[in-house]
Design goal:
The complex is a heterodimer. In chain A, strands 6-7-8-3-9-10 form a six-stranded mixed beta sheet, with helices on both faces. Chain A has a four-stranded antiparallel beta sheet with strand order 2-1-4-5, covered by helices on one side. In chain A, 42% of the residues are buried. By secondary structure, chain A is of the alpha/beta class. In chain A, helix 3 crosses helix 4, helix 3 runs parallel beside helix 5 and helix 4 crosses helix 5 (142-154). Chain A has eight helices and ten strands. Chain B is α+β, with helices and mostly antiparallel strands. Chain B is 69% helix and 10% strand. In chain B, strands 2-3-1-4 form a four-stranded antiparallel beta sheet. In chain B, helix 1 packs across helix 8, helix 6 (130-170) runs antiparallel to helix 8 and helix 8 packs antiparallel against helix 9. Chain B is elongated and about 100 Å long. The chains are: A alpha/beta, B alpha+beta.
């Protein structure tokens, strides 16, 4: 049984637009899936429903057998602490340093400052930006900003990592680098779902591809088993081993 | 704005406390004046004086003879030479009796009737001293202060709420990210509650300063006024306890305003 299950999920907005229609699918724990489709196909709505930024008009979304639509206001923050989210425009806070941006989820979780510092350094090492923790996001390139966004998303070592067009503003080489980072997180057992319209790049990754059109799943192609890897060590732990 | 909103009711409270204080310290109390006819002889006056002095409800009786009254009038009116032309004294003798504090309205009524019955008494007048007026004024100030405290307190809450709303709008991105990474509503609200508390505390400080300045400005002429009644001004109320309460009330109103502003906004805020 999948870690994430969508059962006949429909999302209709107040203006009558149906972003998702009767979507039924599931994602195994530790799997990696690309959501593709044209603009307006329903990719972002799909991810919004998974982070419970919105609720389905009909149907259910079960995460570890819990209907997230029924989560109370008190439990919702705890659910979100187990999910890492990366956006195309990264949502970094301009007035906060790189360190503070990445540390935010850990501080929200009430972690001690010494542990926060250790985890932030580990995350920044993973995205190859250690040494830039004192800078403001505006002092970084677009690609670096995106990697800071990823560092923030994985710093809590979430069980599920969601990304909405994470390579939208990047050149092909950087896009490949970002996708490789997601693959590394997947290889340590994180369930990764990436919404992207860069079909050429996605095709080379050899992962499951869920194609959406008009809010419906029109194709669901399994990944190439040769790209599947057994779980390795957590990349965010890379500096912790030696430190 | 919060400072001004707090300053007025707090200032009125200090005013009322001091009026009460003044009234408690004031030696003069209500009493009655007995005016005699011009024909009343000394024996009639002495009889009434004796009667009043025997009353337990009266603690002091002072006689102003017709002659004393004339001298006093000449001194204060500046009409001395004109009065000399009259040939005879137009002023009657009078008695001023001061009530003991415990006297009730029925006893006052009896006292008036009995005094009125004496021969030679023209009129008995119950003095409603300025002290009584002061007490009444104090009650008015007290009620006015309470009303203003409610109105201006509400104003302070609304002003703080408005400021917190602006602060929230300026930090929407941060709030969205906080919610996204799993901050509880309490964690999202907390900085704004601190903001409200500091804002209200600052209002309390401003209010205290405004009141202090007002006291400095009005103290010298008030000293002069009270000096003419042989009174001294010992300002009551404006002390550490008052300041502590003022700052706490300011902070409390600030938190209340912040809660009003932040509660719904944070709940309805979308994470992405």
């Amino acid at each position: 049984m999948g870690q994430i299950r969508l059962q006949r999920v429909t999302k209709r907005f107040e203006n009558g637009f149906e972003a998702l229609s009767e979507v039924t699918t599931e994602f195994e724990a530790g799997s990696m899936t690309f959501l593709t489709g044209h603009s307006g196909a329903g990719k972002s709505t799909f991810l919004k429903l998974l982070i419970r930024a919105d609720t389905p008009t009909r149907g259910q979304i079960l995460v570890n057998d819990v209907d997230i639509g029924g989560l109370s206001a008190a439990r919702l923050p705890l659910y979100r602490r187990h999910i890492g989210v990366v956006f195309q425009d990264h949502h970094l806070l301009a007035a906060r340093t790189v360190f503070d941006n990445v540390a935010m989820p850990l501080r929200v979780a009430g972690m001690r400052e010494r542990e926060v510092a250790r985890r932030v350094r580990a995350s920044l090492t993973t995205v190859e930006l250690l040494g830039k923790e004192g800078l403001l996001p505006s002092h970084l390139s677009t690609g670096e900003q995106q990697r800071i966004g990823i560092a923030r998303a994985v710093v809590t070592r979430p069980r599920i990592l969601l990304a909405d067009e994470p390579t939208g503003n990047l050149d092909p080489d950087l896009s490949r680098h970002i996708m490789d980072l997601f693959t590394r997180f997947n290889q340590v057992g994180t369930t990764v779902i990436v919404a992207s319209h860069e079909i050429d790049l996605i095709e080379t990754m050899g992962k499951r591809i869920l194609h959406l059109e008009g809010g419906r799943v029109v194709s669901d192609r399994a990944g190439d088993s040769s790209t599947e890897s057994p779980a390795q060590s957590d990349p965010t732990e890379s500096v912790e081993v030696g430190s | 704005m919060v400072g001004i909103a707090l300053a007025l009711p707090a200032g009125l409270w200090i005013l009322q406390v001091n009026m009460d204080e003044m009234s408690a310290q004031w030696e003069g109390r209500p009493g009655l004046s007995v005016y005699f006819t011009l024909q009343a002889d000394n024996a009639s006056v002495a009889a009434v004086q004796g009667y009043l002095e025997d009353q337990q409800n009266i603690d002091r009786v002072e006689l102003t003879t017709a002659k004393d009254a004339l001298e006093e009038f000449k001194t204060y009116s500046g009409l001395g030479s004109a009065l000399d032309l009259l040939g005879s004294n137009p002023l009657p003798a009078s008695l001023q009796a001061r009530f003991a504090q415990s006297i009730g309205p029925i006893e006052v009524e009896l006292l008036i009737n009995e005094t009125q019955a004496f021969a030679g008494v023209a009129e008995v007048v119950v003095e409603k001293t300025w002290l009584e007026r002061l007490n009444e004024l104090s009650r008015v100030v007290s009620r006015l202060g309470a009303m203003l405290a409610v109105l201006f307190g509400l104003g302070a809450v609304l002003v703080t709420a408005s400021s917190v709303r602006l602060a929230i709008e300026a930090r929407l991105d941060e709030l969205r990210v906080l919610k996204l990474v799993g901050a509880t509503p309490g964690q999202v609200r907390r900085p704004f509650l601190y903001f409200g508390a500091i804002y209200g505390f600052g209002g309390g400080v401003v209010a205290a300063m405004l009141i202090a300045i007002t006291i400095l400005v009005i103290e010298p002429p008030l000293q002069g006024l009270l000096g003419s009644y042989q009174q001294t001004l010992d300002l009551a109320g404006f002390g550490p306890l008052f300041l502590t309460v003022l700052l706490l009330v300011g902070s409390g109103l600030g938190i209340l305003g912040a809660l009003m502003a932040v509660r719904q906004r944070v709940r309805d805020l979308e994470v992405v």
